[in-house]
């Protein structure tokens, strides 16, 4: 099994930036990683996903051009660089891991981190 721990959450003014980290432990080879978020009263939604090699990425339309997902397999860490943050980005952010191709379907992910709160204020 893969254990995931998110870090980097906090409160930031709209227009600002944050970088989230998802540190993985255990067997991580060939795992795709994705970031999800859940706001109060809403379903968990996919934000960005990346393949094990880093060669394939996917982004939700709402974050394209603002967020960038990357990974450093030597450190078993995936990053989410969040720029031009909007109030609407406020949510608890989770990283998930799955074997195989990256997707943003939360039901296909077997391992999850504990979540980290992102609050964007105007």
Query: What is the terminal-to-terminal distance?
Result: 40 Å
Characterize the largest beta sheet: strand count, sense, and whether it forms a barrel: 7 strands, mixed
How large a portion of the residues is in β-strands, by DSSP E? Answer: over 45%
DSSP summary, beta strand count: 11
Using only CA atoms, what is the Rg? 13 Å
Overall mean pLDDT score?
95
Which structural category fits the helices and strands?
A: mainly beta
The backbone outline, from C-alpha atoms, is globular
The secondary-structure element order is EEEEEEEEEEE
| Low-pLDDT sequence parts | none
Helix content bin: under 10%
Total number of helices: 0
Brief write-up:
With 122 residues, the protein is mainly β. 0% of the residues lie in helices and 53% in strands.
Question: Could you characterize the architecture of this molecule?
Answer:
The chain has no helices and 11 strands. It is mainly β and 122 residues long. The termini are far apart. The model has no long low-confidence stretch (mean pLDDT 95).
Write the layout of secondary structure elements.
Elements: E1 2-7, E2 10-13, E3 18-26, E4 31-38, E5 45-50, E6 57-59, E7 67-72, E8 77-82, E9 91-99, E10 111-112, E11 116-121
Parallel strand pairs: 2-11
Antiparallel strand pairs: 1-3, 3-8, 4-5, 4-9, 5-6, 7-8, 9-10, 9-11
Primary descriptors:
122 residues, 7-stranded mixed β-sheet, 4-stranded antiparallel β-sheet, mainly beta
């Amino acid at each position: 099994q893969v254990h995931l721990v998110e870090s980097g959450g906090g409160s930031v003014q709209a227009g600002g930036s944050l970088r989230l980290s998802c540190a993985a432990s255990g067997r991580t080879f060939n795992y795709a990683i994705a970031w999800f978020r859940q706001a109060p009263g809403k379903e968990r939604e996919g934000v960005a996903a990346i393949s094990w090699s880093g060669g394939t990425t996917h982004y939700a339309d709402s974050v394209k051009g603002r967020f960038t997902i990357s990974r450093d397999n030597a450190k078993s860490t995936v990053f989410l660089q969040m720029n031009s943050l909007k109030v609407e980005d406020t949510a608890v952010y989770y990283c998930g891991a799955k074997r195989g191709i990256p997707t943003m379907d939360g039901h296909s992910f077997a391992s999850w981190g504990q979540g980290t709160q992102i609050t964007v204020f105007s």
